[in-house]
Amino acid sequence: GLDYTSLSEFMPRLIMTSLTGFGQTGPYRDYKTSDLVAMAMGGPMASCGYDDLPGAPPIRCDGWPGYMTGCHYAVVATMAAILSRDFTGQGQHVDVSLHEALACTTEAAMPWYIYRKQVVKRQTGRHHSIQSTPPAIYSASDGGLVHVFGTPPQTMNRWVGLVEWMDEQGIGPELHGEEYRELVNTRGRSSELVFNLFRRVGELIASMPAAAVYSRAQTIGLPWGLVRSPEDTLDDPHLWDRGFFVEVEHPEMDRSYVYPGAPYIFSETPWRIARRAPLPGEDNEEVYLGRLGLSSQELERLRLDGVV
Q1: What is the rounded CA–CA span in Å between residue 298 and residue 121?
Q2: Which end is more exposed in the chain, N or C (fewer Cβ atoms within 10 Å of the end residue's Cβ)?
């Protein structure tokens, strides 16, 4: 009795949003899904992978992007339903499908196939494309990696800052040419000019340590980022300054380990970690005796039977 039809009879302004793997109707409606299934069947996985490994398979990016994309579209759809209700006074049932949400986020892959019958190529660390585009990750002088985004720069101020930086390193005098300014002004994609610009960017990054490249790019407004290893992240002074990392005792090993902490700071109710994760069976007595009400004899029988 809690379906939309029943509830809306006495609450016509009700908005109910249902977010499922494949929606409320259609031949897939009863199928189960997961983030991996959503990314694969929706299409984005076909565009994710590496171009420097022949025959490399599609790859699902980390971080539950399928679930988050579906939730994003559910929020957008719900806000649209609220806006509609503001005008009409009438609520509605919003049927959101993870499968369709992911199919909306294939970027250029689907339009290229629909209109040109062409399949985009997967590319390492950058968008898929019909034609190969310049690499996006470059090695610095200390071996660190820098991911280059927003190149050519999207504003003339950033372009001028980049060229001045190049001049200081004695790199790319041809970048003063009017054709490059036009490239920035028109957001052009001339293959010859773009590939040469990225070649020069690679030379620039190779002339400096990665941290120095990142710092200078930030002052110019270039959205370049460091590609960090776990060790690099552990050495990040910003994370240590904010108290992100915490020491957690492991008494059975007579030492402590550094753990990542919470990604937020509460001003009134500070987060803390009480202890390390329990060892297998460590909390059996608390759970089975204290919470489930078993007797000591019953717990011992479970141990003897190999249940716990």
Answers
A1: 61
A2: N
